[in-house]
Amino acid sequence: MKKGCIIALMVLLTLQFGYSQFTIDGQFRPRTEYRNGFQTLIPDGADAGFAINTRARLNAGFTAESFKVYISLQDVLVWGENPQIIPVDENNSFSLFEAWASLKLGDKWSTKLGRQVISYDDQRFFGGLDWAQQGRNHDLALITYQGDTFMLDFGLAFNQDLDGNGGPLFGFQNEGTAYPANNPFQYKTMQYVYTKQKWDSFSASLLAVNYAHQNFDDAGNADGVNSLITLGTHLNYKKGSFGAAANAFIQNGEFFNGATDVKGAYLLGLDVTYKASGKVGLGVGVELISGNDVNTTDRTEAFLPTFGTNHKFNGFMDYFYVGNHVNTIGLFDVHASANLTLGKSTSLLAKILNFSGDQELPSGEKSLGTEVDFVLTQKFKGYALKIGYSHLFPADGMYELKGITEDAAKSTQNWAWAMLILKPKFLNTAKE
After folding, report:
1. I need a labelling partner for 86 at 20 to 30 A (CA). Which of 141, 202, 314, 418 fits?
2. End-to-end CA distance of the chain
3. What domain range includes position 363?
């Protein structure tokens, strides 16, 4: 009897794995940073910041014939933040980074429900923000059509918070759906459509996004929502050694605080690349992000690349649109880069960027300065090491923008970092 049960269980498992795949993998990513002018100008006499933090992820995926489930557990910790004998994580950084299920709805249709990463094209407006140790995710429902050369995504989100007074089940609110938020990234509702068509050497995508924040009246009662609509396209051409990519976005609606109308805000970008040889890749580009007249308070023309991987753009020192530079003078960014292959497992990225405002500062100044970025990548067997260095040469406008005089700021504004990346694969039941 026992032998028969064991045989039956083995048969069931064999049948199950015949139609499914189970994977467990992870990521261990410590990063050391020396910050001597990162994101903002550091004052003269101030000591540079220096710390080490680590991202640890454990991911599990199960794929069957008609569905897939994926869960990603994450902790982001700063070395030394917790006393050694404290049994809990004091900064509550442990989280469920992803938790979603994807269901097949037909030959080319599917839906994806739950906490997930949204990332499209070059991640200019929607990106996973992988550079940040915490990353970026969204809680939403996604319907997808995936053809051979054409795809369509339709996303819906409705966010709520726990009721501080405690509801009958899981703290849900019993009355109303008010969702207070104090930043432009924490929306109440969102609807978007993304579509992309591919040809031999060219692809084009269209994106339409409407996201809304809770509005409140003078008495503090929920009073509808403030909606911001973004329309955009990404064009990509690649043939032989030559490549070109363009972005064009426009925004209209209301700013997240409900007090400012957004009219005709825009982003325009063009990047051209050329593979000079098997070891040298060159690039030049320009990006214009509309800003706001400093004398206007009830209306703005400043564009916000809300959910993009903004660290990837406008310099690695994150002076623009990384939790900063919102509803201000905008940006005009001209840049050039070189990707050099130094060995079988070694590469170097070098980039120079010149910044100026789209609008003038109160003094009439627009020039913000120049930044140089270097990133060295060394791959080993099973892991990789990245080392970066960036240096900012501020112009008069940067001192005015950051509210510090040149005499009060350090003469050297720089940033250096080193990051180790390990991605272990613990289990994969797929047949070779």
Report:
1. 418
2. 34
3. 26-428
Helix H or strand E encompassing 8: helix 2-18
φ, ψ (nearest 5 deg) of residue 166: 85, 115
Rounded Cα gap, residues 191 and 108, in angstroms: 22
The answer to whether position 15 is within a domain reads no
Contacts of 191 (CB under 8 A, 6+ apart): 155, 156, 157, 209, 210, 211
Domain assignment present for 34 = yes
In the structure encoding, which two tokens stand for residue 368, read together? 């913000």
Strands 299-300 and 261-275, by their bridges, are parallel
Q: How many structural domains compose the chain?
A: 1
Determine the Cα–Cα distance for residues 160 and 165; give it in Å rounded to an integer: 14
Q: What is the pLDDT of residue 165?
A: 46
In a domain, 108, yes or no: yes
Where do the DSSP E strands lie in 217-328? 222-239, 242-254, 261-275, 280-289, 299-300
Residues 393-430 pLDDT 10s: 999 999 999 999 999 999 999 999 999 999 999 999 87
**Residues 6 or more apart whose Cβ sits within 8 Å of residue 46:** 410
Closest CA to 181 of 250, 82, 256, 88: 256
Asked, for residue 62, whether it belongs to a domain, the answer is yes
Q: How confident is the model at residue 169 (pLDDT cuts 50, 70, 90)?
A: low
- Please write the tens of the pLDDT for every residue from 61-76: 999 999 999 999 999 9
Per-position DSSP letters for 89-113, written without gaps between them: -TT---EEEEEEEEEE-SSSEEEEE
